[in-house]
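Our preliminary data section would be incomplete without showing what the modeling component actually yields. Below, a chain of 459 amino acids is followed by its predicted structure, encoded as tokens that our downstream tools consume directly.
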Amino acid sequence: MQSHRFKPRLWVAAAFLAIASLAGTTLSAHAGTAGSDSPEAGLLQQNPQWGQALPPADAPTSMAYDLIVENNDKGYTPRAGECSKEIHARYWTYGPDGKVYPTWHPTRDASGCTFGHEHGDDPRTSELFSTDGWPAFGYTAEVLMESTSESSHRHEDHVGHKVLAVNNQNVIQGDNGTSFFPPQGSTVATCDTLLKFHQGTHSTDAFTNNVHELIFHQRCGQNNGQTAEARFTGMIPNGRPGGFGATDCPGPFGSKFTNVGPAVPADSPSDTRTLGRLITDAACVQAIRDGLTHFEPITGTMIPFDTNDLHEFWFSDVSVNGQGVNFNLQSLWYVLNPSRYYDASQPNRLARQVDLCYQGIRGQYCDQVRQIEQQTGQRIAFDDPRSPFKGTLREYRPGMITLSSNGPTTVYTDVYGRNPSSTPFEGSIEQYFSGSTSTPLYVRGATRDYNRDNVHSPN
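Predicted structure:
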């Protein structure tokens, strides 16, 4: 992967967001190394059965866990040679409700078999792991299921759960995320971030469904000696339900909204403060075919669109206000190599980017695909591990966080962060907020490429 090929796209995103006053949701040039499948020595494992044994026979299980042991499109269906369902089911944790949930696992089991999908960073590498333990994938869906009618349920596929762990990241004074590079300046805070976000980029799900699970923990030590800490779990809306917005190819950002169909759940809240989910569609493909160009400000030249522009931007704006808490988080979740794009002429309106490589589309990714075909005589399918389009190259920006907390550290909200209360209620989730930010803090997160161990779409 040649990271410099993506910088113009990120700069354009930053410039547009500065104009749109969407501070806190742009990308940076900071790049990290891929999360390790091997934990650092001495890190605490809070579930002694993780990866070693199935849960106790009498342990209550969540719907998310049941889905991975059944045969369905939201669970885990191994291919020949991949880890069995039984091995996969050994990677579990207890959720806040005492039920068994699936959780993070490496791409390769200790036995040597691989799973074919990845969940991002190993949470044990986070300095927050001793507090958080293993993330319970699908906990918010379980709360919805137990407290609302069936029309309000939301169950997400297993492979879309992705973890980001970043330790000791400096926050620079005056950084608001609207510049490509962080500004020069003094460090006003140092932050640890551990989060899990659901972002599948292989299916039709996000064409219509705008709410996705976020498990977020961030602790920032500020140069005024105070610590601000937020632990938030919820279903967060990423734009409007029922459709998606336009990317920068052919652009401009958010220039149209494509209505696709009803969202699940039908009562999904709408986010109108951000650009929401921006997903590549057939208009970008046509722009590449037509040789359309766009301005690259780093070199000051016009360059043609290509397969590096078949990407997705997901924006979100999360708030909890009440019970002495004012919390706001503006994030960006960016995937540079999704396997899908939207094409209204295709069955289910789902098309595969790798198929474009056999239609002469220009770009580094398709050059790789065509080279494999020339060497082997084989056509690469969308779910072939050799395909570069698999959703493994991600830029996650926790973004701008603002926190003012002068009440109890523990509050309870519904799954969407609404109706804060000092006491639990039916359908509530426990949240934690402590301290205050002296100024809004922009945390740039990291770039990761998780392409390893035969990972393939769906991922």
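The first strand starts at residue 92 and ends at 94. The chain is about 15% helix and 30% strand. Preliminary results of this kind motivate Aim 1 of the renewal.
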